Amino acid sequence: MIKNFTVSVENLRAAANVCYSKSKHGLLAMFANDERQLNGKFAIYCLFDGRNPKKMLMIKATIDQKSAMEYPSLTPIIPAAAWFEREIHDLFGLTAVDNADLRPLLLHENWPADVYPLRKDFDVSTIVPEAINKKIPMAHAHGEGLFEVPVGPIHAGIIEPGHFRFTQAGEATLLLDAKLGFTHRGIEKTVEGLSLNKAFFQVERICGGCTVSHALAFCQAIETMAGVDISERAKAIRIVIAELERLYNHVGDAGNLCAGLGFAVGTSNGARLKEYLMRLNDAVAGNRFLRGMVIPGGVHYDLTPELIAEIKATLDKVVVDFEQMTGLLDENDQFLDRVNTTGLLPYQAAKELGVVGVAARASGVDYDLRRDKPYSGYDRVKFKVPVQRTGDVAARLLVRLEETFESISIIRQVLENIPTTEPKLAVPIPLIKPYMTGVGWSESARGGNIHWLMVGENNTIYRYFVRSASYANWPALPIAVPGNIIPDFPLINKSFELCYACLDR
Amino acid sequence: MFKILRKIMATGNVTEPYDAMIPAPRARGEVAITGNCNNCQACVGVCPTGALTLEAGQVIIDQRACIFCGSCVEACEAGTLRQTGNYKLAQLSGQLEEAGQALRNKIIRTLGRSLAIRHLDVGSCNACEWELNALSNPLYDLQQYGLDFVASPRHADLLMVTGVVTRNLTQALMMTYEATPTPKLVMAVGACAASGKTFGTSYAIRGRVDKFIPVDIYVPGCPPRPQALLYGLHLALDKIKR
C-alpha cells in the first residue's frame, strides 16, 4: 500500500527527511513528471520504503512552470538521490539546488544544452542537432606519480558499453569514475502514447537478463491500477518463471565470475549449466529469455504436466551438477585468495546508497522484495533470504550460490501445489481511469525493480519511470573498487553483475 | 586438483553439431504465411515493431524487424499466419551477395579458414550479448569451426553488431569499423541491429546499423538463438551446401 503526500517544493527536503528517517530501506525511486498539460506544473516524486514492510510513502512536490525550475537537492541528506537528480536534470531541466554533481548521466557530449527530451512539448521525432565543444568532465585526482587508465566504452569481452576512468597509484586504484548511458534508447519516452499492450514489448526489452522481472513489475503496476485479480494458477506460474530467470542468471554469473579470474573449468561448467537452463526456458516459454510469458492480466502459456515434469527433471540434473561445480571453488586456495576481501562494499555505504539485491545482501542489508513486499503469492512460499556480512566478492558469490538453491526449492514447492488448470490464464485489463498512477515491483536476479506508471486516455502510457536494480547498484561500484588492483576490476564488476541496459533504458 | 579432473572426466564431451538441437514445440521462430488472407489487417495493427505490411491483399513480413512475439498469429482471423520454430533466417547482403563469385571466393579464401570476430554493442538490451556468449559454451563451441572472438577490432575480420544504433554509441560504431582492417565483414545481429524498429522513433536512437556501415549478413531474431547465429556464420563462410 502506498501513502501519498503532496508538499510544496520548499518543503520537499524536510518532508523527505521525515520519510527517510521512518523508512526501512530509504529512497526507492525519485523522478520527475511534466504535468503542465494537467495542472500547469512539473512534479518531483520521491518513493520511500515504509517502516511497516507493507507500506511505501510517496512524496510529490510540484514546481510551477513560471518559477525558477529548481528544487532543493535531497543528496546532502540522502546519498541515494544523487543519480536520480542528475537524470531529472538531464531529461526535464529541473535543477537540484545543492547537488554538487549534476553532470549529464544519460545525455552525452553530443546533446545540446537546454533541450529536455522528457518534457511533453518535446516531440519524440524531433531531430536534435549535434552539440559541439561540449565536455563532460570525469573525476580526477592529482599528485606525483598518479596516472589515469581510460577503459571503454567498447570493452574487450562480449559485454555492454560503458566508460571507466581509473586514477592509479601504481597498481592500486585510487579513484574510479564511470560514464554510463551509452545504450540509452529513451524507452521512457518511446512508450508514451503507446497502448499498454504494445508498450509491454519494449518493457520486456529494457534488459535481456531481467526480461521477466521488468515484465512482472510493469504488469503488476497495471493490474493494481485496473483493480484486477489474476488467477491463482497464473500467479504460481509467474513465480516459476521469475525463479527460472533468477536461476539461469545466478548459475551463469557463478561461471562468469570464474572467467574474471581465469578459472576455465568453472567458466565452462557455468556456461554449460546455463545453457541447459536456457533450453528449459525455451521449452516453457518459447523464448530462451522467457519473453512473452508474463503478460498484463496473467500469463501467456500454461504449464502442461509434461513441462512440469521437464522442469523437475532439469532441476534435479542441474542441482547435482551445480553442487559439484561449486565444490571446485570452495577448496581452491587460488580462487579463495582472489575473491576474499576483494571489492569491499561496507554496510554503511550499501545502506546509504540504497543498494539492492545480491550486492546489498552480501553487505549485510537484509532486504528482499519477495519477502518484504510480497507479490504474486510469494508470501505462501517458504524460502530463506541469504545474507552475508563481509561485503566482498566472495560474499556476493556466496549469496548468489545460496539463492540458487533457494530458487530451486521455491520452484519445487510451487510445482508441488500448483492450483488446478483454469480456463482463463490471463484476464483482460479494463479501461483504467486516465491519469491514475501505479507502482509495481519485483525482485530480479540483481535486486528490486520499481516501475511507476501514469496512464493516459484509453489505456495508453502518459509517463513511465523504471528504477532497475542496476540503477540502484551502479553508484556502489566506485566505492568498492578503490584500494584494489586493476586486474581485480573485472572480478569486482562481475560480482555485482550490473546491467548497463537496465540503467540506460 | 583431483576433484577438477574428476569433474572434467565425468562431464565428458557435450559439444554438438550446431543444428542438432530441434527447437522446442513452443519455440517462437519465423512467422510463416499459409493459405489465403482475408484482408482483416488485424496483424498489421498489433505488430509492435511494424514488421507487417499489407500489399495488394498480401501480407508481407519484414523478417529483419520481426521480434517473433506471435501477436500477429493470435490476431489473424483467417488463420493465415502460423508461427514456426524456424531460425535459419540469416540473409547475405553487401559484399557477400552482390560481389561476383570470384571476389566472393577470394573473401572466403582470405577469411574463411580462421575468422576472428569482434563483438560491438551499439545499443542492445544485453540479450544478444548473452547469446553471443553462449556460442563459446561447450555445447556450441564456436572454435570448432575455426571461429573465435577477439578482444580488439584491430584483430578482427568480422564485426558482430548488436543493438539499435544509439546517439551515444554512433561514434564508437564508426571508430570500431574504421579500426577493423580490410577485408572485413559486418553482421547485424538481431531485430534491433537489422531493422532499428524495436523501440520505434526516439531522440536517443539513430536507427539500424546499415544506415551507418555496410552490412553483409543479417540475422533476425529477438534475440537470435545461438543456432541462428551459427547458421548465419556458416552461410557467410559458404560452409553450407546450397
List keywords for this structure.
heterodimer, A: 505 residues, alpha+beta, Cytochrome-c3 Hydrogenase, chain B, 3 domains, three-stranded antiparallel sheet, 18 helices, 14 strands, globular, B: 242 residues, Alpha-Beta Plaits, Rossmann fold, 2 domains, six-stranded mixed sheet, two-stranded antiparallel ribbon, 29% helix
Tell me about this structure.
The complex is a heterodimer of chains A (505) and B (242). Chain A has helices at 12-21, 36-39, 82-92, 187-190, 196-204, 211-226, 232-260, 264-285, 305-327, 333-339, 347-352, 357-362, 369-372, 393-416, 469-473, 477-480, 489-496, 500-504; strands spanning 2-8, 27-35, 41-49, 56-64, 70-72, 95-97, 146-151, 163-169, 172-179, 294-295, 298-299, 437-443, 448-455, 461-467. Chain A is an alpha+beta fold and 505 residues long. Chain A has three domains: 2-97, NADH:ubiquinone oxidoreductase Nqo5 subunit (Beta Polymerase, domain 2), CATH 3.30.460.80; 146-179, no CATH class; 187-469, Cytochrome-c3 Hydrogenase, chain B (Orthogonal Bundle). Chain A has a four-stranded mixed beta sheet. In chain A, strands 7-8-9 form a three-stranded antiparallel beta sheet. Chain A has a three-stranded antiparallel beta sheet with strand order 12-13-14. In chain A, helix 7 runs antiparallel to helix 8 (264-285). Chain B is α/β, with parallel strands linked by helices and 242 residues long. Chain B is 29% helix and 18% strand. Chain B has helices at 2-11, 42-46, 71-75, 94-98, 101-111, 127-134, 170-179, 190-195, 226-236; strands at 31-33, 52-55, 58-61, 81-83, 91-92, 115-121, 147-149, 158-162, 165-166, 185-189, 205-207, 217-219. Chain B has two domains: 31-83, 2-Layer Sandwich (Alpha-Beta Plaits), CATH 3.30.70; 91-236, Rossmann fold. The radius of gyration of chain B is 19 Å and the shape is globular. In chain B, 49% of the residues are buried. Chain B has nine helices and twelve strands. Classes of the chains: A alpha+beta (505), B alpha/beta (242). The interface between A and B is large, with 69 and 66 residues.
